[in-house]
Amino acid sequence: MQHTQQDFDVVIKGGTIYDGTLAKPYVADIGIQKDKIAAIGDLSGKAAKTIDAGGLTVMPGIIDVHTHCDLTFQKLGRKRYLAYLMPSWKGNFNYLYQGVTTVVTGNCGYGYTDTAHWFGMIDSLKFGSNVYQLVPHGMIRQELFGSNQPRELTPGQLDAMKRRVAEEMEKGAIGMSTGLAYAPGYLAATAEIVELAKVVRQYGGLYTSHIRDESGATTAGGKIGVLDSIEEAIAVGRQAAIPVEISHLKITAPINQTRAQQLLELIEGARMQGLDVTADQYPYAAGSTYLTHLLPDDFKASTSVKDEYKTKSGRNSIRKAVERVFEYLPPAKTLITTYQQKKSYEGKTIEEIAGIENRSPAEAYAAMVCEEPAPMAVFFSQDMDVVRELMPQEYIITASDGWTVPKGMTQPHPRIYGTFPRKLKKFVFEDKLMDLQLAIRSMTSLPAEKFNLKGRGKIAAGYCADIAVVDFDTIADHATYQKPHQYSEGIVHLLVNGKHSIENGKATGKRGGKAVRRA
Question: Would you tell me how many other CB atoms lie within 10 Å of the CB of residue 244?
């Protein structure tokens, strides 16, 4: 520690510092100049502003490496300009109130295909959080080949994909994501992904994947879906010599006899061989995505079903396919969250909607997935015991798989408001599943190191002044599945690049976020 007389813009006085690593906490002052941490120690220099952190915890701002904050802007078309008028939207309040200062977008193969365009939007808006971007494989493929998607790319088509991936890496993307359970990503062979990952590797990027199958179902080849899919992600890492991040690690229904330990053994085996393989996870036993998720791949278009299934005979095929799914995931376990065409159905299950319409659940489902876009839903398809077993591993990053939500808009998954406070309150303090240092590391330095986010994720001199001052006596998530639009509490102060974005538990409207290009 050091004693200094220099002046600061902000001094955070007397907090207990958890620096983002597994190091022991200590009490010290933090001096901030502009957007950087200038000094840590016993600081007596003059400061334009002093924050009293006595009795509170000071930690790095949380980094959420798996978000879809970009899709809020992309899906709403011209309505995205409302963000300039809505403080909760442009401020990214649902994340700020969790202590999140940095998000990564472009996940699951979805998002903006032009990194510069997306970054320009972020900077013109003066967004509330820092934003890094991944190259979205699926949307690049969609952009290049339209509705006539090839299963196997010709050499010329592969070259076109490589050029586009390289262009986006040149613009500052930090890696490439795939969504292999979605259209058109499901069409991509492993060999295609490996060749594109080699391009990403040349820029020092990483490969993230929403794997092909997250379930315990047995594949046509006699393997277990989730295990086979994890093996594919590892194979990409091995063949392309690139770091791999497995997105939202889980086992979904039908779980059958698949165990968390089987997933962990595959990842640990790869790590023991020297491969850089990690995964991220949210602390809930329900996921959220397009309602089409319940159908076999061949039914899917990017945000709906293929046109051939919107006919009378096509809907019949949808009904038959989803009835098989309802045998292991009943219609009462799927909750509609976003339904642009019928807002009154948001917050209702497929079973409830079927009752309102006086038709079978399969008929109600078929009608909904033929909409453009199809509704989004929460699927109660996981086992909390599996979530708990995966969580405390030292290579598991905490991430929300959420998105920016203007207050009151749609009926989203509660993870959008509560992921990080929930993990700390329930799994660290109440259930004692893991210690506090490990949990904080999973949200700060571990994601920063994995995604190569220079100068973020730690409390250290020279690092960006992304800092959360937290009251762990009051830390809590309040969002529920029926009442999701409730901010978390316990974040007393939050600085984003030195801007005081939350003060005494309330958002100030000061926005310090910026688009950040690959170092």
Answer: 26
Query: Residue 129 sits in a domain of what CATH number?
Result: 3.20.20.140
Task: Write phi, then psi, for 356 (nearest 5 degrees).
Answer: -60, -40
Asked if 5 and 108 sit in the same domain, the reply is no
The reported pLDDT for the residue numbered 4 is: 52
Order of all β-strands in the sheet with 287-290: 287-290, 376-379, 334-338
Residue stretches of the chain with pLDDT short of 50: 1
Which H or E element spans position 334?
A: strand 334-338
Which pLDDT does position 1 carry in this prediction? 47
Is residue 48 domain-resident? Answer: yes
How far apart, in whole angstroms, are the C-alpha atoms of residue 213 and residue 459?
A: 38
Q: Is the dihedral of CA 58, 64, 68, 70 positive or negative?
A: positive
* 99 and 169 share one domain: yes
Give one word for 480, left, alpha or beta, with left for phi > 0 and alpha for psi -120 to 50: beta
Domain region containing 323: 294-379
Let me know how long the chain is: 519
Q: Are 365 and 318 in contact (CB under 8 A)?
A: yes
Q: pLDDT (tens digit, 9 = 90+) per residue, 156-183? A: 999 999 999 999 999 999 999 999 999 9
Q: What is residue 5's predicted lDDT score, i.e. its pLDDT?
A: 57
User: For residue 15, what are the contacts with CB-CB under 8 A and spacing of at least 6?
Assistant: 27, 28, 30, 53, 54, 56, 57, 58, 469
> For residue 470, what are its two tokens?
């937290």
Sole residue written with tokens 């001094």: 11
Specify the CATH number for the domain of residue 31: 2.30.40.10
The two three-digit tokens of residue 221, written as one number: 């080849």
Could you tell me if residue 517 is inside a domain? no
Report the distance separating Cα 180 and Cα 15, nearest Å: 44
Three-state secondary structure call for residue 454: coil
Percent of the chain with pLDDT over 70: 99
DSSP classification of residue 429: I
| Structural domains of the chain, count | 3
Distance CA 166, CA 97 (A): 36
The alpha-carbon radius of gyration of the chain (Å, integer) is 23
The partner residues of 336 in beta bridges, in order of sequence, read 377
The pLDDT score that the predictor gives to residue 302 is: 86
CA angle 268–273–275, rounded 5-degree value: 80
Is the residue at 519 inside a domain? no
Question: 362 with 429, same domain?
Answer: no
Residue 52 tokens, joined: 């009293």
Structure tokens at 238: 């091995």
Ramachandran category for residue 245: left, alpha or beta (phi over 0 → left; psi -120 to 50 → alpha): beta
Mention every residue, 6+ apart, whose C-beta is less than 8 A from residue 5: 44, 45
| SS3 call for 163 | helix
